Amino acid sequence: MANIKLSANKLDELREVCKSFNNEKGELINVLHKAQGIFGYLPAEVQEVIAKELNVSVAHVYGVVTFYSFFTMLPKGEHPVSICLGTACYVRGAEKVIEEFKRILNINVGETTPDGKFSLACLRCVGACGLAPVVLVGEKVFGRVAPDGVKDIIAEYAK
Amino acid sequence: MHILVCGGTGCHASESESLLSHLKAIVADKGLDKEIQVIATGCFGFCEKGPIVKIMPDNTFYTQVTPADAREIIEEHIIKGRKVNRLLYQDPENKEHIADSKHMGFYKKQIRIALRNCGFIDPENIDEYISRDGYEALAKCLTEMTPQQVIEEMKKSGLRGRGGGGFSTGLKWEITSKSVSDVKYVVCNADEGDPGAFMDRSILEGDPHSVIEAMAICGYCIGASIGLVYIRAEYPLAIDRLKTAIAQAREYGLLGNGILGTDFAFDIELRYGAGAFVCGEETALIHSMEGLRGEPTVKPPFPSVSGYFEKPTNVNNVETFANVPVIINKGAAWFASIGTEKSKGTKVFALAGKINNVGLIEVPMGTTLREVIYEIGGGIKDGKKFKAVQTGGPSGGCLTEKHLDSPIDYDNLIAAGSMMGSGGMIVMDEDDCMVSIAKFYLDFTVEESCGKCAPCRIGNKRLYEILDKLTKGNGTREDIDRLRNLSQVIKDTALCGLGQTSPNPVLSTIENFWDEYIEHVTDKKCRSGQCKALLQYVIEAENCVGCTACARNCPVNAISGERKGVHVIDQTTCIKCGACLEKCKFNAVFIK
Question: Given CB 3.0 to 4.6 Å as the disulfide criterion, which of B300, B353, B357, B366 pairs with B407?
Fold first, then answer.
């Protein structure tokens, strides 16, 4: 199912991670967190390695990966943009902010721009409701984002 | 003297870290670092006006402080003793600057038990927690009380689960303590998934030791030596602080073997969530901790009998735990004296939405919604009219004007068609369409449904589709009946708490905003103007001077008319983008 070739040293690193959790199948979610930290996403090949190391089926790993929204099987952009769609942000106009990002970047939610710079995602509540609507670029939080402020945020990272 | 700087997520996002380093550098530069301590604390709760700086002991409360203000605060306030007026909180009504935070409307009605240390101590320093009676309750339990006595005390206090269930905490502990097993677990549910709720995050960021202490007390009562905190991976700051706190507690011998010289052993590990709302349900949470998909299972058996790896497991939420040390220290009778007959103590709410003072508040049970929204929350933003308040997140309902004076407690909220939930409180004004709000919550539930049982997986999807039809102007009167019937079926048949409560936003909005639903289906109108498909842009012939600005800016050429003649919008071509309304200088375009 996979034709992405992973470099040998990264594969070793992944096996080390599994080992650090004693190759215990109950630690699958912790392993996946670390693996996503190494690769940025969880392609099929990574899942196959993990399944083998923890002695579970690939289907089991795939089932867990697709269950949780934090795990992704697609690479994110260099600057992942996440727009909060918690209720507080929603009532303060987050939908219009999403529309503006979609319009300017010309991609849909869940996609990455062709140059790999930006990807667009929605998330539910980062807990900074005082700053609603909230946008995250990487780990940086932008608060009280208005639709006409979107182009400035993009410009900041487009360089 | 202490300078306290808020280090919560909200303020963090507004450069509070750079402010902190500026303050520290200036204090050091002036050679004051022996007398003045600059401390990053947890959330003060007043997130609306962050970043917050508080000067103790005189309680001066500065709002929206930027790194550039650091020098003035040190030179004027700290050195010369003159408060910096322009940074003080300004009363929105009489425009007076309030120097002492005790006099702010936001804090007047609050009683802080679970949040007692948030904003007072440095959460990364165990000594500060200890200086405020920290770990005294644990010592008291271990040396002066038997597990059964502690459980009795908890039962007497009347503390109920703050995660939404409202089950008696003491009783839960008692049941787990009676389950016979060689291994038992204490689990702290920190998977705060309600959109718009951030109580647990703030407690973990501002006062992690209170949760650690309470988990150890619980372990002592039920006979467990391992505690697990299931925390959202989306809360990196809370995870960091918790890790630091656990390491410090181990160093001080408050976790590990032989705690405080007794033979009691207890330690805490972290387990990370990965973004699934259903994992707030305790059986789903336990499966997630076991490395599985977070799907719930039928109860019984309850986790207190068979939980994590089939061992007896006591699951409590963060806020519930944060109350425990205070109850032990001050006594059950004191705690039970606060609140209403069946709901004791206080509740933390995350106040958000169209309200002036967004933030984290803690009020005694029995406080009315009006007090919360108008006195603490400072009323509705931009002077608009209050329409509804949503409590309980996706499991709760929308309450209206007529509920404003009913006291908030577990039972009253359920009677009113909503629920306490974990404590999110989202205020809505006249610009919010209640059909769209119901649709918003269903969108959430559909996405978060684990898919295990059919009523939740399929039923909620159908509910969403019907609501979507309504907001697009294609709904009929029968659709509203269908919504009601289907909602009832889902409530009766879904497997877990998520599905059983997911129709609540639909039912409560139908109940409380019947007129609005009817308008959507019969008049094809949305009074708030949020349902775009139901809007009509029209040109008032009287005001139109024929300047052609609208026609030139219409992206789909839907507007026709001669220069200096009245223009007309062709409704079949119009995409309702609003460009004409924006461009018209003569107020001729309006929304019908």
Answer: B366
Q: Are residue A19 and residue A45 in the same domain, yes or no?
A: yes
Looking at the partner chain, which of A26, A32, A129 has a beta carbon nearest the beta carbon of B198?
A: A129
* Contact state of A129 with B236 under an 8 Å Cβ cutoff: no
CA A8 to chain centre: 24
Residue ranges of E strands in B42-195: 53-56, 60-62, 89-90, 97-98, 185-190
Residue B65 · residue A149 · CB < 8 Å: no
% of chain B surpassing 70 pLDDT: 100
B536-591 CATH choice from 3.30.70.20, 3.30.830.10, 3.40.109.10, 3.40.50.2000: 3.30.70.20
> A128, B424: Cβ pair inside 8 Å?
no
Chain B nearest CA to A155, separation (Å) = 19
Q: Model confidence over A22-79: pLDDT tens digits?
A: 999 999 999 999 999 999 899 999 999 999 999 999 999 999 999 998 899 988 899 9
Q: How many angstroms separate the CA of residue A10 from the nearest CA in chain B?
A: 23
Q: What is the pLDDT confidence band of residue A2, given thresholds at 50, 70 and 90?
A: very low
**Which residues have C-beta within 8 Å of that of residue A15, sequence separation ≥ 6?**
A49, A53
Phi-psi region of B569 (alpha: psi -120 to 50; beta: other; left: phi over 0): beta
Enumerate the β-bridge partners of residue A79: A118
Record: contact B358-A125, CB cut-off 8 A: no
Interface residue of B198, B289, B308, B509 to substitute, partner A, most A CBs within 10 Å: B198
Residue B5's H or E segment, with its range, is strand B2-6
Could you give the CA distance from residue B580 to residue B538 in angstroms, rounded to a whole number? 10
> What is the Cα–Cα distance from B17 to B202, expressed in whole angstroms?
17
Clarify whether residues A146 and A111 are in a common domain: yes
Average pLDDT (B94-100) is 86
- Report the distance separating Cα B459 and Cα A22, nearest Å: 42
The answer, for B241 touching chain A at a CB cutoff of 8 Å, is no
* Cα(B433)–Cα(B471) distance, integer angstroms: 9
Which residues, in sequence order, are bridge partners of residue B559? Answer: B569
pTM score, whole prediction = 0.90
Please report the beta strands in B191-331, taking only residues with DSSP state E, as ranges in sequence order: 226-231, 267-272, 313-317
pLDDT at B235: 85
| A153/B contact by beta carbon, under 8 A | no
Q: Which residues of B361-389 are buried (b: 16+ CB within 10 A; e: fewer)?
A: bbbbbbbbbebbbbbbbbbbbeeeebbbb
Compute the distance between CA of residue B397 and CA of residue B45 in angstroms, rounded to an integer: 24
Nearest Cβ partner of B196 from A67, A86, A139? A86
Judged by CB atoms closer than 8 Å, whether chains meet at B233 and A88 is answered as no
- Put simply, the answer to whether A69 touches B352 (Cβ < 8 Å) is no
Q: Which residues contact A124 (CB under 8 A, 6 or more apart)?
A: A84, A85, A86, B193, B195, B277, B444
How many angstroms away from the CA of A149 is the closest CA of chain B? 16
Omega into A80 within 30° of 0, i.e. cis?
no
Write out residues 34-53 of A within 8 Å (CB-CB) of B: none
Is B377 near chain A, with CB under 8 Å? no
Locate all alpha helices (DSSP H) within A21-93, ordered by sequence: 28-39, 44-54, 58-67, 87-91
CATH of B434-523, one of 1.10.486.10, 1.20.1250.20, 2.60.40.10, 1.20.1440.230: 1.20.1440.230
- Looking at beta carbons, which residues of chain B come within 8 Å of A128? 9-10, 13, 47, 198
Position with higher pLDDT, B532 vs B362: B362
Q: In what order do the strands lie in the sheet with B2-6?
A: B37-41, B2-6, B53-56, B60-62
Cα-Cα-Cα-Cα dihedral of A50, A52, A56, A61, to 10°? 30
Query: Does residue B289 carry a pLDDT above 60?
Result: yes
Region for residue B199 given its phi and psi (left: phi exceeds 0; alpha: psi -120 to 50; beta: otherwise): alpha
